[in-house]
Amino acid sequence: MPLPDLVNTFGQDLLRRHGRRVHKLAIHAGFTCPNRDGTKGRGGCSFCNNLSFSPNARALPRVAEQIEAGRRVVRKRTGAERYIAYFQAYTNTYGDVERLDALYRSALAEPDVIGISVGTRPDCVPDAVLDLLCDLRDAGHEVWLELGLQSAFDATLARVNRGHGFGEYRRALLAARGRGLRVCTHLIVGLPGEGRDAALASLDLVLALGTDGLKLHPLHVVRHTLLAKGWQAGGYRPLAMDAYIGIACDLIERTSAAITYHRVTGTASRDILLAPEWCTKKWAVLNGIESELRRRGTAQGARARGRIAA
Ligand code: SF4
């Protein structure tokens, strides 16, 4: 039984709603992050790769060129003929609205791009940005706002130098969903000081507020980060793969089947990954989650609120 039969994946959700395969294409639009330039904080999140900052935006290919490069690869690999432009790198609402408007519209101008997904921090979505996203949604495009929460615990967020708390997430989430925008919430499993119980508690708080999508990611240690220094000094131990798979399954079971999972694991490239080594093996983790759900005889929503027997 493949994973999409057990988990409401974004790919299946798009296929159901659009009647054809739709694939995300990642865009690097040259943004930086207010948690690094002093606007919200300095130094960035402890797990964020420092060298990946200060991108030379002028050297980046234009959005249309990035889409063309992505579609060539994805079409060959998956057969998808429709795409969602995923503004993924860094804080994709960190700019004046005119710039954002032009960027998002340049992606939507591509005839086979049916929507956008915009990744950002919860403290960086002013009303003007939400209004812009609503305008694009009202023009008939599929629009997702991806909010990086990572943990619902302010102590953990402070520990990883996140520069915002759960309160900012709550405000952004309610403002966006109050306008009818679709929101995908990012959570990281295995943050310093957090184990299974904290991951479940974070999810419960997110579900209690409501969300449309979820993205799970194991915390990995990459080069040139504060976390790498802590790991090298023995102050942080990443999760084992089996532990991550078990927690991911617990979270999936607890999530209503109506919510879309945009991702249940994440990888890092070998050139920057320090630990854990299994974070290069996407398919081993996905197959592990599928096998574990099958072994338990459960699926997404099996232990969602109201369905938990005991
Ligand atoms: S993880 Fe995101 S919010 Fe944190 S420093 Fe990096 S880009 Fe900024």
Give an overview in words.
This protein is an alpha/beta fold. It has one domain: Alpha-Beta Barrel (TIM Barrel). The chain is 39% helix and 17% strand. It contains eleven helices and nine strands. The chain has helices at 3-6, 10-18, 63-78, 97-108, 127-138, 154-159, 166-178, 196-209, 226-232, 241-254, 282-296; strands spanning 22-27, 82-87, 113-120, 142-150, 182-189, 213-218, 221-222, 260-263, 273-275. A seven-stranded parallel beta sheet has the order 1-2-3-4-5-6-8, with helices on both faces. The chain has a two-stranded antiparallel ribbon with strand order 7-9. Strand 5, helix 8 (196-209) and strand 6 (213-218) form a beta-alpha-beta unit. Helix 8 runs parallel beside helix 10 (241-254). The longest helix has 16 residues, at 63-78. The relative contact order is 0.13. Bound molecules: iron/sulfur cluster. Iron/sulfur cluster is lined by residues 33, 35-36, 44-45, 48, 90-91, 121, 148.
Chain-averaged pLDDT: 94
What count of structural domains? 1
Unreliable segments (pLDDT under 50, ≥5 consecutive)? none
Give the termini distance in whole angstroms. Answer: 27 Å
Helix content: 25-40%
In the CATH hierarchy, what is the architecture at level 2? Alpha-Beta Barrel
CATH topology: TIM Barrel
Give, in spatial order, the strands making up the sheet with the most strands: 1-2-3-4-5-6-8
Largest sheet: 7 strands, parallel
Tally of strands: 9
SS field, number of helical segments:
11
- As a percent range, the share of strand residues is 15-25%
Radius of gyration: 19 Å
Sequence of secondary-structure elements: HHEHEHEHEHHEHEEHHEEH
Small-molecule binders here are: iron/sulfur cluster
CATH class categorisation: Alpha Beta
- For CATH, the homologous superfamily is named as Aldolase class I
Instruction: Classify the secondary structure makeup into a structural class.
Output: alpha/beta
Shape: globular
